[in-house]
């Protein structure tokens, strides 16, 4: 396990995890239950965190997150199995794992 990033936003942390999972990179969220304690304990230890299950995936993980933060031009697409919408750069559905057409 390796700490990839900390963010004050649980929504952002969950988004990053979803992006990584969609790319086939195993990631877990930590500190999702401590938001009420921010201010009482140091931020670095209380903020939501995204952890990589496989340490060696860090370079690939950042590449995936960079790509997600800077979407490739192109139309969004909809999964034909579960009807979830995805940005153009994703090749598979994060929700059900189906490959893009
Ligand atoms: Zn799907």
Low-confidence stretches: none
Q: Give the terminus-to-terminus CA distance.
A: 33 Å
Bound molecules: zinc ion
- Class per helix and strand makeup: alpha+beta
- The percent of residues in helical segments reads 25-40%
| Shape estimate | elongated
CATH topology of the largest domain: Alpha-Beta Plaits
Number of domains: 2
CATH architecture of the largest domain: 2-Layer Sandwich
CATH class of the largest domain: Alpha Beta
Number of helices: 3
Specify Rg, calculated over alpha carbons. Answer: 15 Å
The chain-level mean pLDDT equals: 87
Beta-strand percent range: 15-25%
State the strand order across the main sheet. Answer: 1-3-2
Order of helices and strands: EHEHEHEE
Largest sheet properties: 3 strands, antiparallel
Total beta strands: 5
Brief synopsis:
The protein is of the alpha+beta class. The chain has three helices and five strands, in the order βαβαβαββ.
Molecular structure report:
With 101 residues, this protein is an alpha+beta fold. The radius of gyration is 15 Å and the shape is elongated. It is built from three helices and five strands. It has helices at 10-22, 43-46, 58-69, and strands at residues 2-6, 27-30, 49-52, 77-78, 85-86. A three-stranded antiparallel beta sheet has the order 1-3-2, with helices on one face. Strands 4-5 form a two-stranded antiparallel sheet. A hairpin with a 6-residue loop joins β4 (77-78) and β5 (85-86). Helices cover 29% and strands 17% of the residues. The protein has two domains: 2-70, Alpha-Beta Plaits; 73-101, no CATH class. The protein binds zinc ion (ZN). Zinc ion binds next to loops.
